[in-house]
UniProtKB/TrEMBL annotation, chain A:
Alphabetical UniProt keywords: ATP-binding, Nucleotide-binding, Transport
ABC transporter domain span: 4-234
SMART domains the record matches: AAA
Protein name: Sorbitol ABC transporter ATP-binding protein /mannitol ABC transporter ATP-binding protein
Family according to the record: Belongs to the ABC transporter superfamily.
InterPro entries in the cross-refs: AAA+_ATPase, ABC_transporter-like_ATP-bd, ABC_transporter-like_CS, ABC_transpr_MalK-like, ABC_transpr_MalK/UgpC-like, Mo/tungstate-bd_C_term_dom, NA-bd_OB-fold, P-loop_NTPase
Organism the protein comes from: Tistlia consotensis USBA 355
Cited Pfam families: ABC_tran, TOBE_2
A Gene Ontology molecular function term of the record: ATP hydrolysis activity
GO CC, one annotated term: maltose transport complex
CDD domains per UniProt: ABC_MalK_N (cd03301)
Keyword Chloroplast appears in the UniProt entry: no
From TrEMBL, chain B:
Keywords assigned by UniProt, alphabetized: Cell membrane, Membrane, Transmembrane, Transmembrane helix, Transport
Source lineage: Bacteria, Pseudomonadati, Pseudomonadota, Alphaproteobacteria, Rhodospirillales
Pfam family, one: BPD_transp_1
Topology of this chain in the membrane: Multi-pass membrane protein
Source organism (scientific name): Tistlia consotensis USBA 355
Record localization: Cell membrane
UniProt name for this protein: Sorbitol ABC transporter membrane protein /mannitol ABC transporter membrane protein
Length: 337, 276
């Protein structure tokens, strides 16, 4: 079991409120991702759940019982750190065995569990090595192994992939998702990378300046962002956010249209017209950075085969049903049903 | 061209280095040489450098007159004891300053360092009276305690510097893994800080071994270490340079040998953290 509830949790360092107040329900077995720009408080929130920081006020409940003042080790949570935080003077075996030794388990049980975790994580051949002799990906797997053997109520991941190179990151992302599917344990994962958030999460919590901007499934956030911040943060390339006359025509202070939803034509005309600046060919897709007259820069995504070059004139049309409208307060304006 | 300059430079630096090194070492060398001379040759003018009648009679007489081994044992007990006791106090202190600092941590560190700037003689009378009243005069226990307290600021400072280099996340990981504070220090922090702790230990053994103010003032015979042993040859019946030199050589030999063998560790320890 690993249901976690945050009840009006606040955190202040001195007079600075880092987390002004968070309420959140995390169901057992859920994969929840905290995402937001650097300094938004997502790591602090994770450390509050872990018990590595004391909450200033509010309560944290794990499986219904109050864990607000419980020591980190007794919350039955396992954490994987960004820097891996392996014990450099111990072998891989002893690193993974450390929490079991601290729990006072007998040698045979420890051996069985460590070897089991090593098998799952492909570390069997490396058990005698020191962390210094491993690659980044292997180190991260050792850190995960150390977390698995404890059979925790929930796993906490603090930007675990940000020290890995791009290719490895994609692999590890997949491995962690597979691990979640096989263990079915609650996982809370902190990242600043919205692609990781979108691909891994059951539920995404978007944080900004210590506040929760929106909670929802990846597609909910993508399709129905609650405000300008979420709209700009979720999705890659970023949603085009336009203000001024173009927005007023649609009865909003800001309108948003995702690059992939813009209809692009080279000759037939359309709502906006502009000149193509940079063209980014990705093979499967092409991103056009268009300077639209009277609007400014707009990004559009088109198929990989379309032959549009720098300097071409294109017409862009936002389909009304794909248009996101936001009021002056930045909140989404929902169509009355 | 550039290479010739570099080589000449290297040669010059090497020469300067050796000159400074030998100058610093010269008094010790002179004492060692003098210890092998007869008393007459020891005060001869001009002195002979290497071509004199080599003799071991000073060593024999020094050993006959006073029990070198007892002094040496006292030195060992006092230097190891004060260093060990210092570590017991300093490791937790440095841990809390490095990993759980408060607003006043820096001030406490500076205050501790400032105590090393006062002349020890300033507190001689109160400490002497305390020792007398508690029956600690001329006891090893008393010296262990006083030398530990004198060197504690240095031990804490050195350990604090080493501990600061250890990533806090590793200790947090240990905490998440269920380690109590004591286990965290024993299983994770101490093994990672071994190089730092080792050089702290070495430096403090050397400092305690060479200490001559408190050892001379607070001991007479039972707990007197080698520094008192040397001093005992310097006064009553006039100066006997050769015997004094023999006593000095005997006193510094163990620490010199230890320093020689551990110089790599010492240098590494003292420059720890200077470069990542």
């Amino acid at each position: 079991m690993g249901a976690i509830t945050l009840d009006k949790v606040t955190k202040a360092f001195g007079t600075m409120a880092v987390i002004p107040g968070v309420d959140l329900e995390i169901a057992d077995g859920e994969f929840v991702v905290f995402v937001g720009p650097s300094g938004c408080g997502k790591s602090t929130l994770l450390r509050l759940i872990a018990g590595l920081e004391d909450v200033t006020s509010g309560a944290i409940r794990i499986d219904g019982s109050d864990a607000t003042r419980v020591a980190p080790a007794r919350r039955r949570l396992a954490m994987v750190f960004q820097s891996y935080a392996l014990y450099p003077h111990m072998s891989v075996y002893n690193n993974i065995a450390f929490p079991l030794k601290m729990a006072g388990q007998d040698k045979a049980t420890i051996r069985r569990k460590v070897e089991g975790a090593a098998r799952i994580l492909n570390l069997t051949d490396y058990l005698e090595r020191r962390p210094g002799q491993l690659s980044g990906g292997q180190r991260q797997r050792v850190a995960i192994g150390r977390a698995i053997v404890r059979e925790p109520a929930a796993f906490l991941f603090d930007e675990p992939l940000s020290n890995l190179d791009a290719a490895l990151r994609v692999n590890m992302r997949l491995e962690i998702s597979e691990l979640h599917q096989s263990l079915k344990t609650t996982m809370i994962y902190v990242t600043h990378d919205q692609v990781e958030a979108m691909t891994m999460a059951d539920k995404i919590v978007v944080l900004n300046a210590g506040r929760i901007e929106q909670v929802g499934s990846p597609l909910e956030l993508y399709n129905r962002p609650a405000n300008v911040f979420v709209a700009g943060f979720i999705g890659s390339p970023k949603m085009n956010l336009l203000e001024g006359a173009a927005a007023e025509r649609h009865g909003a202070a800001t309108i948003g249209i995702r690059p992939e939803h813009l209809e692009v034509s080279t000759g037939a005309g359309g709502e906006w017209s502009g000149v193509v600046g940079v063209v980014e060919h990705l093979g499967s897709d092409t991103f056009l950075h268009v300077q639209v007259e009277g609007l400014g820069p707009v990004t559009a995504r088109v198929g990989g085969e379309l032959d549009i070059r720098h300097g071409s004139r294109v017409w862009l049309t936002p389909p009304p049903e794909r248009l996101h409208r936001f009021g002056a307060d930045g909140q989404a304006i929902r169509q009355a049903a | 061209m550039a290479r010739a300059v570099t080589r000449r430079r290297k040669l010059a630096f090497t020469l300067v280095g050796w000159t400074i090194g030998l100058t610093l070492f010269f008094p010790i060398l002179w004492a060692i040489l003098t210890s092998f001379k007869s008393e007459g040759e020891a005060i001869a003018s001009p002195p002979s450098f290497l071509f004199f009648h080599w003799t071991l009679e000073n060593y024999a007489e020094v050993q006959a007159r006073s029990d070198y081994l007892l002094y040496a044992l006292n030195s060992v007990v006092i230097s190891l004891g004060s260093t060990g006791l210092g570590l017991l106090v300093a490791i937790p202190a440095a841990w809390s300053m490095a990993f759980a600092p408060s607003k006043r941590t820096k001030d406490i560190l500076m205050w501790m360092l400032s105590t090393k700037m006062l002349p020890p003689v300033g507190v001689l009378v109160p400490i002497y009276l305390l020792f007398r009243d508690f029956g600690l005069l001329d006891t090893r226990g008393g010296l262990v305690a006083v030398l530990m307290l004198m060197n504690l600021p240095i031990i804490v400072w050195m350990l604090y510097t080493y501990f600061k280099e250890i990533p806090g996340e590793i200790l947090e990981a240990a905490r998440m893994d269920g380690a109590t504070l004591a286990k965290e220090i024993v299983h994770v922090l101490a093994p990672m800080a071994v190089p730092g702790i080792a050089s702290t230990v070495l430096l403090n053994i050397i400092l305690a071994w060479n200490e001559a103010f408190w050892t001379l003032n607070l001991t007479a015979s039972d707990a007197a270490p080698l520094s008192a042993f040397i001093a005992s040859y310097s006064s009553p019946e006039g100066l006997f340079w050769a015997k004094l030199s023999a006593a000095s050589t005997l006193a510094i030999a163990p620490i010199l040998v230890m320093g020689w063998f551990s110089q790599k560790q010492l240098v590494r320890g003292l420059t720890f953290g200077a470069v990542k």
